[in-house]
């Protein structure tokens, strides 16, 4: 009987938390759809798919980009070892506040800053390498130069064992000058990673493709251009353009 009451209380707490997250997410999407780029937080199926193939069991440092209300953060925290740190970047102040109210895990560091600043933020906290990067950023809405800056600031922190995961919705629609056209992040990611595995997760609203990217960064176009001009650290590139 006591066990049943306990289980009911936990279910009620989970339902209340989910309703609060949905509400915060919907309000944020209504006020800034360009950044949120979605109508609902990711499903648990998508969150689990994003973590498949990551070196989670042995991870010490994981970065999440675009944490939202924490749909993927929660699953990450369930799977990460006790000694690990999860640095979750999120630009929306209301969603950061929602995350603060929902999570009290000491492994979670919430960073209210743009993903493009991650080099500076990681250096400031003394990190030199990351095991995994889990990105929910909507690359289809992000200008190309910002996408490049974001990936290139990651470069010094990634090695051949590090893994980057990214999802994008299967419809892949991008609106430019009042016109809709299809967009896929695959060609862009292929400029940076040696190997990309792709799978579709239908149990999400909307369904999404997950890209699991490995291999040390190739010299992407901007890295090559930069090498041709003068030495320039990725961190300073981010801070100049942020
Ligand atoms: C599609 S939502 C994903 C939210 C959550 N991870 C999920 O899967 O439910 C993308 C999130 O990225 C955040 N975001 C957009 N651009 C960002 C940037 N440049 N740096 C950090 N966060 C960003 C948005 O505020 C939004 O919360």
Describe this structure as you would to a colleague.
This protein has 242 residues and is of the alpha/beta class. It has a single domain (16-241), classed as Rossmann fold, CATH 3.40.50. The protein contains ten helices and nine strands. The chain has helices at residues 2-31, 33-36, 44-51, 71-79, 93-102, 118-124, 144-154, 186-190, 221-229, 234-241, and strands at residues 61-65, 85-89, 108-111, 132-135, 163-169, 173-176, 179-182, 195-201, 208-214. Strands 3-2-1-4-5-9-8 form a seven-stranded mixed beta sheet. Strands 6-7 form a two-stranded antiparallel ribbon. Helix 4 (71-79) links the parallel strand 1 (61-65) and strand 2. Helix 3 crosses helix 4 and helix 6 crosses helix 10 (234-241). The protein is globular and about 60 Å long. The chain starts with a helix and ends with a helix. The chain binds S-adenosylmethionine (SAM). S-adenosylmethionine binds at residues 35-38, 41-42, 65-68, 71-72, 89-92, 95, 114-116, 136-138.
């Amino acid at each position: 009987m006591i066990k049943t009451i306990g289980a009911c209380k936990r279910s009620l707490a989970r339902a209340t938390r989910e309703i609060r997250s949905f509400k915060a997410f919907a309000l944020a999407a209504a006020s800034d759809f360009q950044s949120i780029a979605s109508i609902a937080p990711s499903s648990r199926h998508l969150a689990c798919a994003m973590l498949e193939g990551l070196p989670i069991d042995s991870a010490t440092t994981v970065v999440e980009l675009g944490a939202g209300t924490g749909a993927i953060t929660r699953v990450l925290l369930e799977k990460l070892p006790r000694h690990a740190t999860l640095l979750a970047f999120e630009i929306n102040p209301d969603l950061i506040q929602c995350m603060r109210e929902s999570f009290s895990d000491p492994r979670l560091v919430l960073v209210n800053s743009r993903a493009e600043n991650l080099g500076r933020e990681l250096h400031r906290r003394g990190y030199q390498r990351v095991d995994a990067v889990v990105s929910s950023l909507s690359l289809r809405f992000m200008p190309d130069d910002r996408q490049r800056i974001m990936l290139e600031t990651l470069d010094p922190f990634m090695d051949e064992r590090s893994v980057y995961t990214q999802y994008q919705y299967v419809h892949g629609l991008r609106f430019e000058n009042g016109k809709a056209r299809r967009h896929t992040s695959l060609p862009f990611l292929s400029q940076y990673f040696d190997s990309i595995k792709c799978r579709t997760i239908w149990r999400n609203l909307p369904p999404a493709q997950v890209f699991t990217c490995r291999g040390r960064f190739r010299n992407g176009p901007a890295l090559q251009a930069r090498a041709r001009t003068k030495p320039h650290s990725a961190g300073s590139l981010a801070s100049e353009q942020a």
